[in-house]
Amino acid sequence: MFNILDYGAVSDGKTLCRDAFQRAINDCAKAGGGTVYVPNGRYLLGTVFLKDNVHIHLDAGALILGSTDLKNDFAPDEAIPYAVYQDASHTFFHHSLFVAEGCKNISVTGSGRIDMQSKYESDDFTPVRGIGVCPKGTFRGAKVIAFKECTDVVLKDFSLYNATDLAIYLAGCEDIRVGGLLIDTHIDGINIDCSKNTVISDCIIKSGDDGIVPKSSYVLGRKQLTENLVVTNCIVSSECNAIKLGTESNGGFKNITVSNCAIYDTRSVGLSVEAVDGGEIDGVTFTNITMNNVGCPFFVIIGNRARGPEGTGIGSIKNVKISHIIHTGPYSEIPRKRGPYYRHLETLPFNHQAGMVVGLPDHPIQNIRLEDIYLQMNGGEQVTPNTVPENPKGYPDANIFGTLNSYGFFIRHAKNVKAVDIKAEVINPDARPEITLDDVENFERI
User: What is the pTM of this model?
Assistant: First the structure.
């Protein structure tokens, strides 16, 4: 065991302990691996780099404070040797607290806490992000855990607060176990990108952006699936989407299961599947989910944003099952409150929307099963819109089509849809029908 106090760490919450942490990690790796122990105390930390077979263990009384000196105490953004098509947060890794690249058998565990102290970038300091679609001035801070192309990763039992960039970002990783985390953060909670064989379980997440967000972006400079992912027994609240596949979908998704979760106080969508940057989504199951005070229960969409290399085509979605869903209201809009990153969004309204399955003309969503779904909606619309516009290039959120012409289920450009024991009710009288079908081939309701 490698105790950080033996390497000069000071537990006053004021003295930067970055070098002491790194020395302990280095010696642990030289010895062939082991545990870097963080005992009871308060430790101020900037960027440290993990190595093979190193396991960070946070004692129950340990509190790691992310430094508020983003310029000097965190590593600068690394150079990217290939074209960039995703945003800055899903491009760079080094400007983070715990960083690992190409490592095997690594972990951060224990019942201690990490607090990033809600420190955003200021106008006089922005990491080098002026490339591709990574503009300066995003006002995000440092990520907490950023691992790239690592295998056998465990994140377990600690609490994580007040991150102003992605709390956890794992890209190109394999054999991942995330469990028992408490996350209360300003931006995304858990991002799994271009990774396979992942289990996320028993987490409680409150996020200012999306909660649990599998992606398949171009972060590795190539297309790569996110596949074999299980999310179970989690509780999620989000000022955006609770659980979302996408937005980045370049590599596609395969064999995804989300089950036994509770979603509450979520401004946009409870369960979202988005193929808008190409890629094939095949085999997604959402089951045994309860929702309360959620803007839109589910949102399955093919779009044509085509953010990717030249020639990126339209993606596809098939073989999706949404079952055993209870969505209760009334919905009361969740205010934006998460710092300067959202200041331009604070006044945007959000409409309570029906569950949606929406493809594109000539690109239908295929093989959808909706089963045992109950939706309690606000209602209150006195006019039924004649048409709902197409918006293939719009940003895929639940307001993309404006007011829908049904209050419960909106299905368009789909093929082979089976609905078993589905029902939507309104709290306030509504002129619209429960369900709208538009360009749907082979629909069966039982």
Answer: 0.95
